[in-house]
Amino acid sequence: MSLPPGFLDELRSRTSLSQVAGRKVMWDMRKSNQAKGDMWAPCPFHQEKTASFHVDDRKGFYYCFGCHAKGDAIGFVKDTENVDFMEAVRILAAEAGMPMPERDPQAQQKADRRQQLAEVMEMAVQFFRLQLKMGAGAAARDYLAGRGLAEAGQERFEIGFAPASWQALLEHLTSKGVEEELILDCGLCRRSTKPGGRPYDAFRNRIMFPIRDPRGRCIAFGGRAMDPADDAKYLNSQDTELFDKSRVLYHHGPAREAAGKGKPLIVAEGYMDVIALAMAGFDASVAPLGTAVTEHHLQLLWRIADEPIIALDGDGAGLRAAYRTIDVALPLLEAGKSLRFALMPEGMDPDDLLRAKGPVAVQEILDRALPMVQLLWQRETEGRVFDSPERRASLDKALREKIMLIRDPSIRSHYGEAIKELRWALFSPRRQEGGSARQGFGRGGRWQPPASARQTTRASLLVAAGEGAHQRLREALILATVICTPQVFDDVEGQLEGMTCSDPEHERLRGLILRHAGQAGEALRARLEAEAGGDALEKLLSLPHVALAPAVRRPGDPDIARMTIAEELSKLEAERGLNAEVREAAEDLAGVADEAVTWRLGQAAEERQRALRSQTEDTTEYDLAENGARISRDERERLEKLLNGITFSKPAR
């Protein structure tokens, strides 16, 4: 449901958080200052005797110094009353005497429809679970027991059984009053091709795995055939209004929660691998659903963890799957977001390894997970002989084509350096003479990034001057624009996901926006304030260059918002490209300062000066409405002084 602008602000202004929380806590009046709205009490969210739960009534936020629970009045009602966001708003609005706005009929109709489908899916879950416990499910129970999955695991993952009947589920649901059309729209049944024929069950004689979305709603099923002669060993629900297999991960919600507590995110190939891993303590485990890893899967994974571990079967198919994933991931890489690959022993999957050697063996494999660049190198070199210039040139071409897929110039540069080190180790004369030319590798042969950035280069003002400040300014404006006009989110979601944030606080806010952007403007802001803290949002929106921007001064204007975001993203990309050229040239210069290198540095420096001059005026103010972000006079003079002190000469031909 969409709330009108200002509704939540008005609700908060009419609501006293100390009064709301006072219904659930006993204030410690010795520690509290009621006149200033500074209230303390034992926390209602965890057992304690001391007063570590603090309410700032003026700001409208609470925080527990013991369990770190935090939020506003809406969040407090939501968590203590176990209701959703809109119900919490409704409760507080009734207490404040504010009528709730009427629902958008179309949006409500769509939400009601999805709720109907989800309820039918839940009925199917219960039907399949019951069938597993009955006589028809005996063979399925034996199979699960043989795979080491005890009854506790079956209950935890709600595993069921679809009997070998053409219409068992259909008849069960219709007897409960469910319309056939709803059952068909859930993908639980399929239409008969025979004239006048009734629909028939989509799953028959299969062990059933409910597939739930991050909110816990059952949106699909996966079925494992009990008949070895069945055409499909594993069968997933067809795509429906609730389910798109290219955008869904099995065990997503519990894995996200476990990863938030520090567990490594593991991507396995199938249901049984995920279940076995989770039961062995690797709770942050997920799997794609009958399809190769897609771009959407990677974006979902990176929202959960910065460096998921792809755990693949130890056979040719597993290795090929890893190589396909590399090709999908390369264009999407950004600073801090990558993949590692854990390859199981030959002929084993994670479930096999757990049953054979236990969790310790799996942990050892995960600890030795390869960075993506090493697996890329392995793919292009394994089993090949490079005993001629032509073969070496072919290797160089293949690697160059893969590296050029990387859009981020900084990561592309680092991949180039890593490949250069690996190539040197392969073709080094000392290596070919039998020596130990293992530069770039650490203990146990594990690859480590080369330390090619010398101290003098890292300290260079030429590399550091003005590079980070402008990126942070532009990132702040982009995030603020989306917060002020969230209706443009669908148009810029991909660009927002691909944006590299140089500021950790911006990275955190960007993640929260991506997670909660489906909510309306005020609801989104309330959610961000609850999870990031009101101070973080207030700090972002009060920055001078943000507060003066038209997109922030006029929230809710989608045209201005789209224009602002597009312009700032374009400038970010241009600046990062220039910075990468200067940085690369500076690193080369730190090694051997030949004429070609100094010429490259000069060209990059001149290009950077032109870009800076196009944005610079003799002022320290920011006026994004007219000329875009400007740098200060001091920054410009410092950079120009540095550049003017370097003499550049064109290399002789």
TrEMBL record:
A zinc finger (CHC2-type) spans 43-67. Its EC number is 2.7.7.101. Keywords: DNA replication, DNA-binding, DNA-directed RNA polymerase, Magnesium, Metal-binding, Nucleotidyltransferase, Primosome, Transcription, Transferase, Zinc, Zinc-finger. One of its GO terms (molecular function) is DNA-directed RNA polymerase activity. Gene3D superfamilies: 3.40.1360.10, DNA primase, catalytic core, N-terminal domain (3.90.980.10), Zinc finger, CHC2-type domain (3.90.580.10). Binds 1 zinc ion per monomer. Belongs to the DnaG primase family. NCBIfam families: dnaG. Contains an N-terminal zinc-binding domain, a central core domain that contains the primase activity, and a C-terminal DnaB-binding domain. This is DNA primase. It comes from Roseovarius litoreus.
